[in-house]
Write a structure and sequence with these properties.
The structure is a homodimer. Chain A has 3 helices and 10 strands; from the N terminus they run βββββββαβββαα. Chain A is of the alpha+beta class.
Chain lengths: ~180, ~180
């Protein structure tokens, strides 16, 4: 089999749209040759920020997550609003937490849900940190925030206290980066 | 601030639905007190399977991912069809790859995209493997599949050859499990 698109697109329409996402329904011929549809969730690419202090601790925040109807620990981040993703990361971080960072490193660019969504997530590492107490309020309303060691965060993941897949993806990329750095040192 | 829901729900309607997802639009009062909407993508919980052989290599498959319109390396998995998630994992794995496993371990249950979707993903570790050559064809049409070492998969992630966040989440949970096992041995 060649690496060509096995789906044939017949037509495409937007079936729902709001400020944050667009739902597209494509009429297709499936790889098996049957007529069918494929619904795709389109949203702006997003960012997530691994805020790492000099003790190799990571900053996590507790936000209310509407789809789950629950407060959830996670890494800071958010929608990219179609802007440059590094700029979006700096803005999101300062707005959500009052933290600014002098050193930024891109750790990865990954798909969030490759069966349903087009959204890609940029993971940035933020280091050399400054704190501004007068942080802005955001829609997400952070109830709590703290630095935790990698052992603590690992234990929170094991206990289900941090269950955000996007944060866990970013932590994989952080561990990879730390390991790679330790090999060079 | 108490840990109560800061959003007030006014009304809710389904604005789009197909076999795989339902889009719900809620009319809300935001935490800031403004009238607004929140769109939520509802889909069945999904599964992803870390297939680990006796050499600590992981099985990856190359599938065409419609939203990205590209062939992508990833771990086997798929939608749960509302069935028991372990049962779904066994079915998905055998259908997609012809692999059955005697030993199954749940590694985690995580949110896929906690700002937009309700979907949760169960990660299962499959060990003590058998292979059946007569695997069924599935909608996803796997073009290639192989076992890779953890070093190779890490390098593929670094190079952007494997960029599926759900697979990377599962690999974090695998590394955690392997580390925890090594501490016990």
């Amino acid at each position: 089999m060649e690496e060509t698109n096995p789906w044939k697109l017949l037509s495409s329409k937007v079936v729902y749209q709001n400020k944050w996402m667009k739902i597209r329904e494509d009429s297709v011929i499936t790889p098996q040759g049957a007529k069918g549809i494929y619904g795709v969730v389109e949203s702006n690419d997003s960012v997530i920020i691994v805020v790492l202090n000099s003790k190799d601790e990571v900053y996590i925040t507790k936000n209310f997550r509407y789809p789950a109807q629950a407060w959830k620990w996670e890494l800071p981040g958010g929608g990219g609003d179609n802007e440059d993703l590094l700029k979006a990361s700096k803005r999101e971080l300062e707005e959500e937490t009052g933290i600014t960072a002098k050193q930024w490193t891109k750790l990865g660019f990954t798909n969030v849900s490759n069966g349903l969504m087009t959204e890609r997530m940029a993971t940035y590492l933020a280091q050399d940190l400054s704190f501004n107490g007068d942080k802005e309020a955001s829609d997400e309303l952070i109830i709590d925030a703290k630095f935790v060691s990698l052992e603590e965060i690992d234990s929170m993941i094991h206990e289900g206290e941090l269950d955000d897949g996007q944060s866990i993806t970013a932590l994989y990329l952080l561990n990879r980066w730390l390991y790679s750095k330790s090999q060079k040192d």
